Each structure stands twice: as C-alpha cells, then as structure tokens.
Amino acid sequence: MSVPAIASALPPQLHVFVRxxxxxxxxxxxxxxxxxxxDSGYVRHAPLTLALLAGARGIGHEQLAFxxxxxxxxxxxxxxxxxxxxYGCPVAVPAAEAPLVExxxxxxxxxxxxxxxIERFAVDRVLPAxxxxxxxxxxxxxxxxxxxxxxxxxxxxxxxxxxxxGDALWEHGFGFVMPPAIDPAALPAxxxxxxxxxxxxxxxxxxxxxxxxxxxxxxxxxxxxxxxxFEADSLRIARHALKxxxxxxxxxxxxxxxxxxxxxVDRVGIYRxxxxxxxxxxxxxxxxxxxxxxxxSRAVRIVDGDIVPAADHAG
Length: 315
Ligand SMILES: [Zn+2]
What we know:
Elements: H1 3-9, E1 14-17, E2 26-29, E3 35-38, H2 46-54, E4 64-68, H3 74-77, H4 80-87, E5 91-94, H5 98-102, E6 125-127, E7 131-135, E8 138-144, E9 153-157, E10 162-166, H6 186-198, E11 204-207, H7 216-232, H8 234-253, E12 256-257, H9 261-267, H10 269-279, H11 283-296, E13 300-303, E14 306-309
Parallel strand pairs: 3-4, 4-5, 5-6, 10-11
Antiparallel strand pairs: 1-2, 2-3, 7-8, 8-9, 9-10, 12-14, 13-14
Helix pairs in contact: 6-7, 7-8, 8-10, 8-11, 9-11
Zinc ion binds near residues 167 and 175.
C-alpha cells in the first residue's frame, strides 16, 4: 500500500503527524469523550508540535484530555512540558518508567547521559502493561515491549490490527539497544518483544519514527536479522548505540567541532562508559572510529573542521 493509501486505511479519528528523526511521531486520537495524544516529540520542536496539535488536522481550540508516552526518551517526551502548559492535561507514562521520571534519572532515561536536551515534566498517571484503554473510541491494549527501552509499551488495537510501536519496531529496524556490557537483559528482551509482536494480527504499524507501514512480516524479519547480527558481535551493537546517539545530537546541533570530539566522547557518559567496558580506546581513537564510520556510511560530512549531518539526514 502507498503511504496515502495507508493513511486512508486508518480510522478517521486517528491522525498521525509524521515527524523527522529528531522528534518521534505524534499520534492523535480524537473523541467526543476527550482527545488523546501519544508522544510529544523533541524539546527543540515543541513549538511545531503545538502548532500541529492546534492546526487543521489537530484539535483547534478544543481541549486535550490526556497525553500518553510509549516510553520516556527525549524524542518522545520533549514536548510534554509545553503541552501541559498549553492544555493542562494529565501525562501518563508506562508504569515501569514512572519512578525514573519521578526521580529524573538522567542516566536511565538517557538524557544527560547521552547529552540530550529535555524539559522536565511530571507524571500524573501510570500505565501498567496488560491493561486496556479506550482512546479515540478505539480499544487499545498496552503491551510491554522491553528492549530498546526496558519499560516501553506498545499499544495494539485488535479490531483494526493497528500497532502503535514507539521504538520497538520500525519499518527498517528498531531503536538502538544497549550492549550486554551495560544491560545483559536488553538484547534478549528485544528478541522476545519481536517474537511477541509476531504473534499479533497486525495490519498497520504506526512507528515512533517514519511513515506508517503494512509490510509487518518484512519488518519483523529485518528486525530479527538485525538482532542476530548484534547477538553475533557485541562490539557491533556497542558501535551502533554510540553512532545513533552521536547522529541524534548532531541532528539537534547541526554541527559539532571535529577537534572537540575526543573531549566530547571522554565527557559524555554513554561514550565514556561503553569505551571503558567495550572498546578500551583512547578518546581520540574512539572519536575517530565513530566519525569515520558515520562518514563512510554517508550519514555525516566534514565541512570546515566541523561534523555536519549529510543532506538526507538533515532534520
Ligand atoms: Zn527511544
């Protein structure tokens, strides 16, 4: 199915605002009983998130009843504080994430640990796994989807076969997974989550990043192959985690000094810790390895001594 065909196959009260890779997609579920928004994007894009929500495909001047997050990474909850200021609505997060948000654990939530920007927000309600919720006049089952994020939920509507997958499943892969040296449970959990999703009758996936898609079997297959590659090589999964994080920060900043990279990877927690546990390199050598791989895969270019995102990665 083409992208417009997929969009028109969704129930009319369900709207997907497909964002770039810095901000997660926002899913709006409209109902006379109260509108619900799932995920709020990255903090730098909060003005655009508010504009989309208030715009023609959004809710105009109506109230938002509820803001839900699939998980609490910065690209999914970055608009939470701005939305609460505008609409005064309660925020619901997965039950397993709530204590991390309450104590604002910047390491577990990958905020300062990954050098990501975020505005603090409060949790009003918790969503346990295996609970059912009616949002947008549709029944959604909250299912635990640990792996990329160990507390993440996905939301499944059996009637229409719709999965709101967050970062647990994308059309081509899933959100980066911590290497076994940091969390030995993460990769096995990723595999178990993909297997669990394979048991559901899913017709359309609304991922956290990228367009909604219908080739679910193909996506599950690609995810399984990526997991197998990570299982076979613990340095590959560690390099992948660091490259994804560096790319994310670069999309936020748009340029970073190449000369500052050794000090950067020595200062920011995730690089420092993975280097100590997995790579055992000098900071200069680690920086060279990561930037070199991103350059070779044409994700970045070096311009006047700065690393910049390649054109097709520009946010
Ligand atoms: Zn994530």
